[in-house]
Amino acid sequence: MTLPDLNLLFALDILLAEGSVARAARRLRLSPSAMSRTLARLREATGDPLLVRAGRGLVATPRAEELRQQVGRVVQDAEVLLRPAELLDPWSLDRIFTLRTNESFVEEFAPRLVARIEADAPGVRLRFAPKSDKDAMSLREAAIDLEIGVAGETGPEVRIQALFRDRFIGAVRADHPLAEGKVTPERYARGRHISVSRRGREKGPIDEALGTIGLQRTAVCMVSGFSAALAMARASDLIASVPERHTAGARAGMHSFPLPVATVDVTISMLWHPRFDADPAQRWLRECVREVCAGR
What is the pTM of this model? Predict the structure, then answer.
C-alpha cells in the first residue's frame, strides 16, 4: 500500500483558504503551474475536483467544504507537534513529581525544596519514594522522575548530573568523651560504633581505612539509615559516622568531628531518563533541585 504524501495536506489547507491557485502558489512559493499540478494530485487523491471554475474564479465543491475545517485542524496539530515547546508557566503547573532518595536527603533538603517549589508552582506536589527498590527500570518506565543519591550501576542511557560532594564525619552526644581533646585514630577505633548499611554490609570504607593502619573498630549494632544512627548516638555513648551535608540539621546539638582516617568523598547526583530531557516541567524541577542543593 502506497502511503499518502502528507505534504498535500498543507497544500490543500492553503488552496481551500485562498480559493485561488495563484494566491496559493504565492503563499507556498511555488509557480502557478506547480500549484496546478499539486491541485491535480489532490483531486486524484480525494476523488473530488475540490475547486471548480465559476466565472473568473474558483469555488469549493461540497466535499471541499467538508474538508476545509478538518484539514485546518490537522495542519494546526501538526504545527504544534513540530514547534519547540512553549515556555513553562510554573504557576499553572498541576503535577506530581516522584523523587527517589534516602531519608537523610529528605530530612535535610526536602523542606527547602518544597518551599522553593511552592513559591513558584503551588499546584505541584512532591512524592519522595524510598531507595529500597533502586533500579534503572523505574526511570525508563517513568515510575519515578528523578533519582538522587550516589550514582551506582545504571542503564547506559540514564542521564547523570552531579549536585554536590559530601564527606563522612563522626558525631557523638555533646558530653561524650570524644568531645574533649583530639580525636586520634586510636581513640576513634576504641569507641563503640553504630554501623550504617542499607544493604546489611558489616564492613565499609571506614573499616578499610582503619585496617590500613592496623586498627579495627567495634560496631555493636547496625542500622539502615543515618537518622537512626544519630538518634542512637545522641542518647548513648555510641559513635555515628555520617555524611556531613546530609545530616547538618539532624546533628544539631551534637559534637561533630572530622574522621581521623582518610576516606573518599561521595558525589551526590541526580539521575533521569533522556525521555525527560526536553520536557519543560522536568527541566524546571531539576533546576529547583540544583538550586536547593547549591544553597541558593
Answer: 0.68
